């Protein structure tokens, strides 16, 4: 007994409708994949459910965007925005090619195709570029010199401040050293006075004379007289 034919009308029951959609969707995606693999076909399949859920399939390694773009090119159904993007892409490609040629000319390569007028124009462009480079170089050198001069002036100011600070410290140290030396001298004098206590008092005249007079040596003359007497005795 064969399977009954499904009547082609909207399924009223929501649950049955969802179940039927799931079955047909799976079969449709499977068939699309089989056709793509078996027949080497590029397939793009987009499915929206009644609830707005998206399901899609595209032949690998292509993307859905690539397949849609190919479809639009084949049908001539590009949007104005896409046409504008394509025109802009072509313009950028041409500008890139021109810039590449100009760069090669500036580098000194591919000059055989240029005429005398083109070479003269290229020479003027190079001279203009060289002048700009030189001007920028001089500007940078001047900035560097100005920075160096400012640094030198700053270092001189700091050096002067440091020298002034050192001089102040040395002067303060000398001022502190003077009382110390005076105290040391006073201590030494006091030590001398302690060793000779009579130096710091008024002594009698006899003591002063004893201290001031050199020691007498009367015994030095007696041996000489004895020697003379002995000599006279021997002579007689």
UniProtKB/TrEMBL annotation:
It is found in: Nucleus. The keyword Membrane does not apply. InterPro entries: MADS-box/MEF2_TF, MEF2-like_N, TF_Kbox, TF_MADSbox, TF_MADSbox_sf. This is MADS-box protein defh21. Residues 116-158 form a coiled coil. GO terms for cellular component: nucleus. Residues 1-61 form the MADS-box domain. Residues 82-172 form the K-box domain. It comes from the Eukaryota. The gene is LOC18606001. Pfam families: K-box, SRF-TF. The keyword Methyltransferase does not apply. It comes from Theobroma cacao (Cacao). PANTHER family: SERUM RESPONSE FACTOR HOMOLOG (PTHR48019). One of its GO terms (biological process) is positive regulation of transcription by RNA polymerase II. Keywords: Coiled coil, DNA-binding, Nucleus, Transcription, Transcription regulation. Its main location: nucleus. CDD domains: MADS_MEF2_like (cd00265). GO terms for molecular function: DNA-binding transcription factor activity; protein dimerization activity; RNA polymerase II transcription regulatory region sequence-specific DNA binding.
């Amino acid at each position: 007994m064969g399977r009954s034919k499904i009547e082609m009308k909207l399924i009223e029951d929501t649950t049955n409708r969802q179940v039927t959609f799931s079955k047909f969707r799976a079969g449709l995606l499977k068939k699309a994949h089989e056709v793509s693999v078996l027949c080497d076909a590029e397939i793009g399949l987009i499915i929206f459910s009644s609830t707005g859920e998206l399901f899609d399939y595209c032949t690998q390694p292509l993307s859905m965007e690539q397949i849609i773009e190919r479809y639009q090119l084949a049908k001539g159904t590009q949007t104005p925005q896409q046409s504008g993007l394509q025109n802009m892409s072509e313009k950028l490609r041409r500008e890139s090619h021109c810039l590449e040629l100009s760069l090669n000319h500036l580098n000194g390569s591919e000059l055989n195709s240029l005429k005398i007028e083109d070479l003269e124009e290229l020479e003027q462009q190079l001279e203009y570029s060289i002048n700009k480079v030189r001007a920028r170089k001089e500007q940078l050198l001047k900035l560097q010199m100005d920075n160096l001069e400012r640094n030198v002036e700053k270092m001189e100011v700091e050096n002067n401040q440091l020298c002034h600070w050192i001089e102040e410290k040395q002067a303060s140290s000398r001022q502190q050293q003077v009382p110390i030396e005076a105290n040391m001298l006073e201590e030494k004098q006091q030590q001398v006075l302690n060793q000779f206590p009579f130096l710091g008092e008024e002594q009698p005249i006899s003591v002063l004379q004893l201290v001031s007079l050199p020691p007498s040596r009367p015994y030095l003359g007696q041996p000489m007289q004895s020697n003379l007497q002995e000599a006279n005795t021997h002579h007689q």
